[in-house]
Amino acid sequence: MASHLIQGRRVDMPVEIRDATACTAMYLVRADAARAVLAYSDIDVTEVLPGKALCVLGFVRYNEGDLGSYNEFGVGFMVRPPDAARPPARSMLAGLKDIRLHGAGAFVHWLPVDQGFTLEAGRTIWGFPKELAEIDLRLSSPYKRCVLRKDGRLVIDLLIRPGMPVPAAPAPMEAYTHLDHGTRRVPWTIRPHGVRARPGGALIRLGNHPIAKELSELGLPKRALLTATISHARMTFQAARPFTSP
């Protein structure tokens, strides 16, 4: 069994999260603006509609797991697998055809956390772009809220209104990261319970931090395409695999 030594503590693979609460908001943004944000990587966004990419904002409370308890916020984009064939010509159905043929993954662009152990583990084991930040999660009320500050400056205040219960099943996924000039592929699985979803359902207030400016250049705040909340989730993270462009 592979393992890593993080701050004097052994972390065995795969890493198990035994209980987490998660909230996400998905936005259609201009594909060219998303490509500008991800210019440092060698990964292209998926155009889910002609000229449109999918940006995902989310916050998670990890209640129990191999990396301890902590809060996390994430900015990600739906992307094409790096080894996929050339994207199809633009049409209203091209994005759906591309996803059906080649699949899609989530590129993790920014991943602030509020604890040092998970920061070091995330960067060392998977190459996740974790940074320390102040993350105030308010999950006990009907509306779920995250207030995120970095270096004493407000980045985002995100409020999510849970929708109707929807069925959910365990889902294998792939995340992509790019840290220290290397791209990695991270297979992971989520087993969600208590899922609610709805169109719209999010309110955003942006601050004056550079990340807030980056989000504004994507066109936020705007109406969310879809929001979802998960009251309890179990997750399994496998070892990262380096990816080399062909």
Compute the number of strand runs: 16
Radius of gyration from CA coordinates: 17 Å
Per DSSP, the total helix count is 4
Strand content: over 45%
**What is the share of helical residues?**
10-25%
Shape: globular
Order of strands in the sheet with the most strands? Answer: 3-4-5-6-12-13-15
Arithmetic mean pLDDT? 91
Strand-pairing-aware structural class: mainly beta
SSE string, helices as H and strands as E:
EEEHEEHEHEEEEEEEEHEE
Oligomer: single chain
Distance between the termini: 30 Å
Biggest β-sheet, characterized? 7 strands, mixed, barrel
List low-pLDDT spans.
98-103
Report on this model:
- This protein has 246 residues and is mainly beta.
- It is built from 4 helices and 16 strands.
- The chain has helices at 31-37, 94-102, 116-126, 210-217; strands at residues 3-6, 9-12, 15-30, 52-65, 70-79, 105-113, 130-132, 134-138, 144-150, 153-160, 164-165, 171-179, 182-198, 202-206, 226-237, 241-243.
- The strands form 3 sheets. The chain has a 7-stranded mixed barrel. Strands 8-9-10-14 form a 4-stranded antiparallel β-sheet. It has a two-stranded antiparallel sheet with strand order 1-2.
- The protein starts with a strand and ends with a strand.
- Mean pLDDT is 91; it is low at 98-103.
Topology, please?
Blueprint: E1 3-6, E2 9-12, E3 15-30, H1 31-37, E4 52-65, E5 70-79, H2 94-102, E6 105-113, H3 116-126, E7 130-132, E8 134-138, E9 144-150, E10 153-160, E11 164-165, E12 171-179, E13 182-198, E14 202-206, H4 210-217, E15 226-237, E16 241-243
Parallel strand pairs: 6-7, 6-12
Antiparallel strand pairs: 1-2, 3-4, 3-15, 4-5, 5-6, 8-9, 9-10, 10-14, 11-13, 12-13, 13-15, 13-16
